[in-house]
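USER: Write out one fold?

ASSISTANT:
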Amino acid sequence: MRAIFTILVASILYCICIAAQAQSSAPATASTPSSTPGNATSTANTPNSGNNLTVAGTVNLVEGDVHIYDAHNAVRTVHVNDNIFEGDSIVTGADGEIHITMADTGFIAVRPNTKMAITQYRANGDNQDKGVIGLLVGSFRSISGWIAKYQPKSYEIRTPTATIGIRGTDHEPKVIPEGSSEGDPGTYDKVNTGGTFINTPQGRVDVSENHAGFAPHGGIGINARPRMLDRVPNFYRPTRNEHFIEGKHAEIQRNLSTRRAERFQQYKNNVRQQGQRAMQESRMRQQQANGMQRPNMANRQEGAAANNQRTTLAQRLQAAKSAMAERQQRMLGNRPTENQSTNRFGQNQRGNNMQANQQRANPMQQNQRANQAVENQRSNRVPPNNKGNGRTTNKEDEKRTRGQKSE
């Protein structure tokens, strides 16, 4: 039983240690959104939740413990020339440092023990450019690019209790949390070149070159307002890579306008190419849709042709039947039927009967005709001697003829 109890306690302690390590190594954005600077992990405006990622900058130096978390808290390590995207969070350990050249030619050097986020970063060289950086704890040095110069109201740094505005500046914002031994908790900003301002609900303070401003996390009344410090705090110390940053402000400002114009032209070309690709894809989808419809149309056409052919054949068959029927009727009309033959025979028989009756009814007429024929033959015959009473005169013939007529 003692061995089982020992194993159970060891398992519980192991789970607690794993949970503590995970919580300590997670970025500030892994906690509740209210604890992040400026709601840095909001994915409402972060395109790297999909395939269309907005590049905020490019890594040109990375050393020590550095981790990048995307908008979904997926962690990755980066190397030189890798991209940092809008919506990414950057976490550095005690020896971690990363330098980033921003899309608007600005520059950021993230110091050790820092948790920050690229909340928004759009740099296309037009009036829609915007840069919002959230700082939860730690510090970084920033040399602003063309967004802060041409769109100063669209560039800001947000901390848990303050907002830092930029006016073409080389500056170093810093956040000290509660319970830290570095100094009073709150938001600090040291200006190397140019100027900034710190704004809180309690007031605002402008920070000039070679000075530092401070906005406390707590306090009542006048003590809660942001203010200028008498001197730059001692925790502002250069890192081992500070020599890479010296002279960058002048270099960036010298080429700022040219780089902005180039970027705007590139942006227009990209928009044009995207439009052309979208049109091509739409055309291809339309062609595919038409290709899918063609077989159906062909089937319908074939079906219609088959129906027409069947209709034509049926019409031809009907016409042939009609012609055959007409031919048969014609043939039957020329040939006498049985009734017609019977009627004709009856008519002939009746004619013969009528003829016989007429012959029986007029025997006297027939005898008269026969006598007349005999008399005609006698009158036309000439006797051998014309002497005496044997000769027949014309007058006698006429009298005979009139007598026969009268009869």
Notes: Residues 256-334 form the longest helix (79 residues). The helical segments are 2-25, 146-150, 248-254, 256-334, 338-361, 363-380, 394-406. The chain has seven helices and 15 strands.
